[in-house]
Amino acid sequence: LIFLLTGLVIGCLSVYGLRLSTLEYLYNRTCKKSLVNFANILHGVYELYDSLYIRLTPISSVTIGTSIDELFIETWENTYNYSNYYSICAPLTCRYTYVDRNNTTYMLTTFLGLYGE
Q1: Do 17 and 10 contact (CB within 8 A), yes or no?
Q2: What DSSP element (H or E) covers 68?
Q3: Does the reported pTM lie above 0.90?
Q4: Chain mean pLDDT for the chain
Q5: Which distant-in-sequence residues (6+ apart) come within 8 Å of 25 by Cβ?
Q6: Rounded CA gap, 84 and 32, in Å?
Q7: For position 2, what pLDDT does the model report?
Q8: What confidence tens digit (pLDDT) does each residue in 18-51 have?
Q9: Residues 92, 39: Cα–Cα separation, whole Å
Q10: Contact between residue 32 and residue 42 where contact means Cβ atoms under 8 Å apart
């Protein structure tokens, strides 16, 4: 049994082929049914793909490599609440110590620097 998987690329290494492939065959109802009949691994799951709406459309133009590079994140929303951050993370006291010992080299270079002006 031979069937065509649209968007699947075969390369010298499977990783290269996977990164250049697209997921458009998962959005093709005929292809999904062929996969289910052939491998019987997606049984009962292929209806789920019909209801998915993701920003990776049109599917044929987005490669799996691009999706991996974008970490499969569809949208990224940042919300900041600084008052909560400072109320939770603020320390009761803040202490900073700086230990500096005036060694001979420091004193000599400082003296020469002042003398040179």
Answers
A1: yes
A2: helix 64-69
A3: no
A4: 74
A5: 5, 6, 7, 8, 31, 32, 35
A6: 48
A7: 63
A8: 888 887 777 777 777 776 676 665 555 545 444 4
A9: 62
A10: yes
